[in-house]
Structure formats: C-alpha cells, structure tokens
C-alpha cells in the first residue's frame, strides 16, 4: 500500500513457506490445470442467490494479487440490487447497439460471430451479482493529495485473473463483459473520475440449459504458447 513520506525497506522472514517435492509440485500443477479446464464462460444464468459473504471472500482473494510498488490500484464494485443491475443493462445495451451497428468494424464483428454475442444482455439482470472492476489511474491520500500508481493495467489484470479463478474455485460461473465505452459505469457505481472501469463480471450459477460456443473449447496447444530457453540468435 502507498505510504506518504519516506518509508525504509524492512525485510521480514518469508511467511507461509511451501516445501514440496518435485513429484508433489507436478501433481499440484496438474491438479490445478485439471480444475481450471472445467472453467467455462456462460451467458445463461439462474437467479439462484449467492451469499454476499462468498463474493466478499472472492474479492479478498483478488486483493492478494501482486501489484506495481504494492499500490494495489484496483477497486471492485459488487452489485446485487435489481434496479441498479437494470440500469447497467440498459446503458450497456445502448452502447452495444452502436457497436453492432457498425462502430466495431467488419473485422471485429466477424471475429465475434463464432462466439454468438449480440446486443441483448439479459445476464446483466438475471445473474445475482455483477462485479465491476475499476483500475485506479492514480491514488489519493486521506488529505486528498495525488500519488502515482505503477503498472496499473498489468496489476489490475493480474487481480482480475485471481478473481476469475476464485469464482471458479467457489463453484460459480462468470461472464466477462466489456461494453465500449464504459464511462457510464463510473457514474452508476459512484466511483471517482480517476478510476477507469475495465470490465463487468456477471456472476452466479449456470442455468440448466446453459451452453458454450464450440469454438470456446478450442485452445492453443502448449507448443504455441510456450517457448523454453529460446535461442536469440536463431542458431
């Protein structure tokens, strides 16, 4: 966290040390991979309630993410109020109408066709919770003085990854939604102008008839996303 004035570096012993064998490490990696393979993005939710305590624990997990200078430049707004969710849906669909009417461009719209998205966003009302993620361009002290945050997109992205993994671990489903532009979320969520909304997560339980796009199951093979000890000279 940001601390005003000069703060000296003070190392402390590593807490929560993990000591595992090579076999245990591989087993743990495989178990987590297998668990995350069962994570799917859905657009079809039930209105089954989710306790606020669950959402709080999940966001607390996101808050454990590493960040530039440990400034933790993020804020999460959790919304279950039906009236506010309806307002967010209306504003999001207004932007989506412009997007799908040509604002996105032909190439982008063509890329989205296999995903099956469109203007209508009923999940923004049906899902019991919406979590709106904000990135803080800069911070403010209690006295209102501005201080700089570092690696804001990277830090907030890591925290969002923690959030999505925690949601899945809790047995919940989520849908990432990024209406463009998203400025309306700043006002509806009562957040200051120096916080940039970057994503809405619809959160809840999947409907009995929920589906996923077939293309969503097509992941790049490991060989395409991993290089080990690359030769910079190409020899």
In short:
Helix content is 37%, strand content 15%.
Structure write-up:
The protein has 235 residues and is α+β, with helices and mostly antiparallel strands. The N and C termini lie far apart (45 Å). The longest helix has 22 residues, at 82-103. It has a four-stranded antiparallel sheet. It contains eight helices and six strands. The mean pLDDT is 95.
Profile the largest sheet: 4 strands, antiparallel
Task: Assess the beta-strand content as a share of residues.
Answer: 5-15%
Order of strands, main sheet, comes to 1-2-6-5
**Gross geometry:** globular
The figure for the number of domains is: 1
**CATH fold field value:** NADH Oxidase
Order of helices and strands: HHEHHHEEEHEHEH
**Poorly predicted sequence stretches spanning 5 or more consecutive residues:** none
The CATH superfamily bears the name NADH Oxidase
Number of strands: 6
The top level CATH class name: Alpha Beta
Class by helix and strand content?
Answer: alpha+beta
CATH architecture: 3-Layer(aba) Sandwich
Query: Averaged pLDDT, please?
Result: 95
**Helix coverage percent:** 25-40%
What separation lies between the terminal Cα atoms? 45 Å
Pfam family, one: Nitroreductase
Domain Nitroreductase: 37-205
Protein name: Nitroreductase
Keywords: Flavoprotein, FMN, Oxidoreductase
